[in-house]
Specification:
The chain has 137 residues and is α+β, with helices and mostly antiparallel strands. It has five helices and seven strands; from the N terminus they run αβββαββαββαα.
Length: 137
Amino acid sequence: MWKELYNAARKVQNGRTISPFIEAGGVAAAVLTKAGNVYTGVCIDTACSLGMCAERNAITNMITNGESQIEKVVAVMPDGQVGSPCGACRELMMQLDSDSGEIEILLDLETEKTVKLKELVPDWWGTERFAGRNQDD
């Protein structure tokens, strides 16, 4: 599954200049949802710093399509290696679902080394807000 997610991200990566102010696609990401669907996104870097990371772009694509629970995440750097999501992406993922700490993140494609999101965000500040909350609320 990791190779499939990696390939989905690489397929959309295509680093490019959109305008003198915007570059896109240096980093690409793919998320696998708990429903088994794959959503992709690319980073959008802007001169005014209002861009978006590839992971958040993939997540917004997922949300746009009616899903909010992630199983796995792959981020592909410009050199083709995989990398770990930034703090903003980690935070967004943690806020999606009470089980988000269990999201698997690929750290090395060759060895399939992974880490769970909760290991990257220990003692997360929002855990108590999920306590006793019905997922449909």
